[in-house]
Each structure stands twice: as structure tokens, then as C-alpha cells.
């Protein structure tokens, strides 16, 4: 099967669902997500569809600030590395092309920024 690029909301939905299925089962980051998302996975997935649809397809369906809900998560660089590993593997398994590459770059930038901000707030609270 030849892979295609990310091109529509169905592709975004496939990416998000496949990625978060891996996250939920992951030994390292799964427990953190699963505890935080108890009873709220469908709501979170819907938000992620809109987020990636806005970023990759430039269809402005997401509004809000993605960082605040993550501010106090008990995570460090190892968790972000695993998140990126799962995300990159998911994208590479499902898609190829310009938007697939853009998704990985955007995710890496977000992981870097989230980690930086979480560490910053942690140090401010000491």
C-alpha cells in the first residue's frame, strides 16, 4: 500500500485516534494520560481533531490555548521524548508527504515548548 499525505479531516481523525490508542497503552505516558482523561477521552480527541485540522489544513476549527491543561502534569524530558517517538512513528506508518512532515515538526516544536514552560513554572513555584 502506498502512503498518501494528510489531506482532510478523515486523515487527521485517523492520525489522532491511532496516536492516542498508542498513548493509552504505553507503559510510560499512558498512566499519566489515562489518569488525567478519566471519562474525558472523547472530548479530548474531538479537541485534538480540531487542533490538527487548524494547524495542518488551515481550517480554523480550534480556538483556545493548548498549554494550560498541561501546566502541572508530572512529566519530564523522558515523557516528551516518548510522546514524540509515538507521534513520529504513527505519522510515518500512516502518511508521507509535506503535511506529514509538517505534523512532525509542529509536534516537536510543541513538545519542546511545553517541556520548557512546565520546567519554568516548576522552578517558579519552588
UniProtKB/TrEMBL annotation:
The keyword Transcription does not apply. GO terms for molecular function: heme binding; metal ion binding; oxygen binding. Keywords: Heme, Iron, Metal-binding, Transport. It comes from Flavobacterium flavipigmentatum. Pfam families: Bac_globin (PF01152). This is Group III truncated hemoglobin. It comes from the Bacteria. The lineage of its organism: Bacteria, Pseudomonadati, Bacteroidota, Flavobacteriia, Flavobacteriales.
Amino acid at each position: 500500500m502506498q502512503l498518501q499525505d494528510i489531506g482532510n479531516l478523515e486523515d487527521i481523525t485517523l492520525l489522532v485516534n491511532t496516536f492516542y490508542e498508542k498513548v493509552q497503552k504505553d507503559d510510560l505516558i499512558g498512566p499519566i494520560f489515562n489518569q488525567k482523561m478519566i471519562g474525558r477521552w472523547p472530548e479530548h480527541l474531538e479537541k485534538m481533531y480540531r487542533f490538527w485540522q487548524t494547524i495542518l489544513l488551515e481550517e480554523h476549527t480550534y480556538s483556545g490555548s493548548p498549554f494550560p491543561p498541561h501546566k502541572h502534569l508530572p512529566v519530564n524530558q523522558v515523557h516528551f521524548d516518548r510522546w514524540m517517538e509515538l507521534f513520529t512513528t504513527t505519522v510515518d506508518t500512516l502518511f508521507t508527504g509535506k503535511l506529514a512532515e509538517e505534523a512532525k515538526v509542529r509536534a516537536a516544536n510543541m513538545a519542546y515548548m511545553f517541556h520548557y514552560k512546565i520546567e519554568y513554572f516548576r522552578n517558579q513555584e519552588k
